[in-house]
Task: inverse folding
């Protein structure tokens, strides 16, 4: 099966937001571990995300001792971004538990935002399921981890899957395995580089995915260091945008440099909301709002000089001037060869009422 077999509306509901081709973009502020293991800092990030008017805030959840090999967990991790002597200690320092998640869940609800997370393993997925989030995110690294994705899909909530580092065949495999279990599936085009260069964005993949999976909402996990690509992605059909979010680019941690600060996120959200309205319906029409400018700038047909009644009009008698009064120049041929039924003066706008 390479394409959706059942024709239906391209629609996904997360919380109380219905996402479709006609909707605003659903915007996820990916906080990840930019809270640096501090609950208060996470609270501040949630508040800043709300001020930026995003739809959702997202964290990452790992069962570190089960996720990494012993060698990987115990590997020395001595660098400017480290929060521990080993990689395992570093990851454990950043990890939130049940109390922090419940507190942040309450805060997100009070702020009117959706709150969910990316589980990187089965224990983390089960941990999140106990909190009953409105959706789950699957990271690019788990694109080929079908058992994990099927386990998460079994919870019956929307599943958003990033496709970084994968091929269209990988997306088809996920589609074929997950749709019979849970049709609430969303694919995010993604380039798994941090940050991503403009020449590596390959945004036309969004259109490819929309064509290949006509029943799925398609989005973008955006690692570009700026806000321009999100708007381009929306125009191409992306209706979910995930963007890393921080309080300060200079904070300790690898993700802060590619994350948007509050003002950047606010501008991106603003531009995405405006883009939906600006796209319109594709029908070319004259707007009432255009009338004053067009009348001022466009031209009408005027008498080039004083002309007597009975004069037979020729092109030499006509001038095209602003403002746009009388007939438009496009209708000049209607006047040529006809007699004036009354005298006209120079700069008098001409209409069919002047001729017989």
Result:
């Amino acid at each position: 099966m390479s394409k959706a077999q059942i024709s239906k509306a391209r629609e996904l509901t997360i919380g109380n937001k219905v996402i479709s081709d006609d909707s605003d973009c659903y915007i996820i502020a990916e906080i990840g571990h930019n809270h640096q293991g501090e609950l208060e800092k996470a609270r501040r990030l949630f508040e800043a995300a709300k001020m930026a008017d995003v739809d959702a805030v997202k964290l990452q959840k790992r069962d570190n001792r089960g996720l990494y090999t012993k060698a990987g967990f115990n590997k020395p991790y001595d660098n400017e971004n480290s929060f521990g002597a080993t990689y395992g200690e570093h990851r454990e320092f950043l990890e939130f538990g049940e109390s922090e998640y419940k507190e942040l869940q309450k805060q997100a609800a009070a702020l009117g935002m959706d709150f969910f997370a990316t589980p990187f393993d089965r224990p983390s997925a089960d941990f999140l399921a106990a909190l009953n989030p409105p959706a789950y995110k699957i990271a690019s690294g788990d694109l080929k981890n079908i058992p994990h994705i099927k386990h998460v899909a079994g919870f019956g909530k929307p599943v958003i899957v990033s496709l970084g580092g994968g091929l269209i065949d990988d997306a088809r495999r996920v589609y074929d395995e997950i749709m019979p279990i849970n049709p609430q599936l969303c694919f995010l085009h993604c380039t798994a580089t941090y940050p991503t260069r403009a020449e590596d964005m390959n945004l036309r993949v969004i259109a490819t995915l929309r064509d290949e999976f006509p029943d799925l909402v398609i989005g973008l996990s955006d690692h570009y260091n700026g806000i321009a690509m999100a708007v381009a992605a929306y125009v191409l059909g992306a209706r979910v945008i995930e963007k890393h979010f921080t309080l300060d680019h200079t904070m300790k941690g690898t993700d802060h440099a590619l994350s948007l600060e509050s003002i950047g996120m606010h501008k991106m959200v603003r531009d995405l909301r405006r883009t939906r309205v600006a796209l319109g319906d594709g029908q070319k029409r004259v707007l009432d709002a255009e009338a004053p400018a067009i009348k001022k700038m466009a031209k009408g047909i005027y008498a080039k000089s004083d002309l007597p009644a009975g004069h037979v009009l020729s092109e030499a008698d006509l001038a095209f001037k602003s403002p746009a009064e009388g007939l438009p120049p496009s209708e000049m041929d209607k006047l040529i060869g006809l007699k004036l039924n009354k005298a006209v003066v120079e700069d008098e706008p001409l209409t069919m009422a002047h001729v017989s």
The longest strand covers residues 26-32. Residues 81 and 253 are 5 Å apart (CA to CA). Residues 262-279 form the longest helix (18 residues). The radius of gyration is 30 Å.
